[in-house]
Amino acid sequence: MSPPPRLQGPVHLRVPEGDTHERKVCLDCHHICYENPRIIVGSVVTYEGRLLLCRRAIPPRIGFWTMPAGFLELQETPEDGAKREALEEAGARIELDGLLAVYTLAERSQVHLMYRATLLDPQVSPGIESQSLEFFSYEDVPWDELAFPSVHWALKDWFETKSEKHLTPRRNP
Amino acid sequence: MSPPPRLQGPVHLRVPEGDTHERKVCLDCHHICYENPRIIVGSVVTYEGRLLLCRRAIPPRIGFWTMPAGFLELQETPEDGAKREALEEAGARIELDGLLAVYTLAERSQVHLMYRATLLDPQVSPGIESQSLEFFSYEDVPWDELAFPSVHWALKDWFETKSEKHLTPRRNP
């Protein structure tokens, strides 16, 4: 484990020598605090052609539907992260079947890596971040109760590519 | 611009309530410092079938060859980041032609998004992070003088997929 960040002194915005962007720099210890975009990993999970969605139990968008997804952790591959999120949020053991999409929410500095996945075992149970789980046919997806635009995008991209064996990842519409 | 991180007090590793991983927590202000994997964006750039490589002028691996790549910046899309790196490191204006690979260096907490790209204008010039630039045919790539394993992977993956119109991104070998 690396040592804690040394940002004890006054922190100011500066462009470090040889750099092109402003960074937060500690004027005491000269530590430069690089801030980077964050990676969300998740999956569109199906079982016998039906889509597994989770009703959110935590903010933002409590009560709205999403797919299992969350922040990639340190020292984790995106594939392992997507599997971990499915297990944590839905008790779902999944197998990945290609990278469905790379979405960017630039204004939030988020890059979403969304996989296509199938459920290995229909026994699922909501984790603490989910109120409930449900399997929907594509036609019955509650489009007006989805938590985020990226959930819309991923479900539509899944539908449009579901017969493709080799996926070319989609991007933001 | 968000305020500077408030990590003035003693920082300890704790698992916050409802969380699954240890985080750095300030015992004075209770600020939780989430650390996340970082995204590297880059491209395998060709011009008339030859590969553009940059001889590194900065550590690590000074003097070794790499493709234009670097950390994605806040509020930037991966595509824009890959184009920016090509411009900064090689003065190269490029057009992207698909996501070539998603590599993970889990032990370094890095996810690499590598694109296939073509050069729009053969006039290139090394940026401050490059000693020199050169165009190589695939057969003449200096395999023993490449800076990182991921450079090997990307060049090989480029070669193996160069006739594919629709790319399915490769992963670590």
Briefly say what this structure is.
Chain A is 15% helix and 35% strand. The first copy, chain A, has 173 residues and is an alpha+beta fold. In chain A, strands 4, 5, 6, 7, 8, 9 and 10 form a 7-stranded mixed beta sheet that branches. In chain A, strands 1-2-3 form a 3-stranded antiparallel beta sheet, with no helix packed on it.
Detailed description of the structure:
The structure is a homodimer of 173-residue chains. Chain A contains two helices and ten strands, in the order E-E-E-E-E-E-E-H-E-E-E-H. In chain A, a hairpin with an 8-residue loop joins strand 1 and strand 2. Chain A has 173 residues and is of the alpha+beta class. Chain A has two domains: 1-35, Single Sheet (Ubiquitin Ligase Nedd4, Chain: W); 38-161, Nucleoside Triphosphate Pyrophosphohydrolase, CATH 3.90.79. Chain A is 15% helix and 35% strand. Chain A has helices at 78-90, 149-161, and strands at residues 11-14, 23-26, 32-33, 38-47, 50-56, 65-66, 69-71, 94-105, 110-119, 130-136. In chain A, the strands form two sheets. In chain A, strands 4, 5, 6, 7, 8, 9 and 10 form a seven-stranded mixed beta sheet that branches.
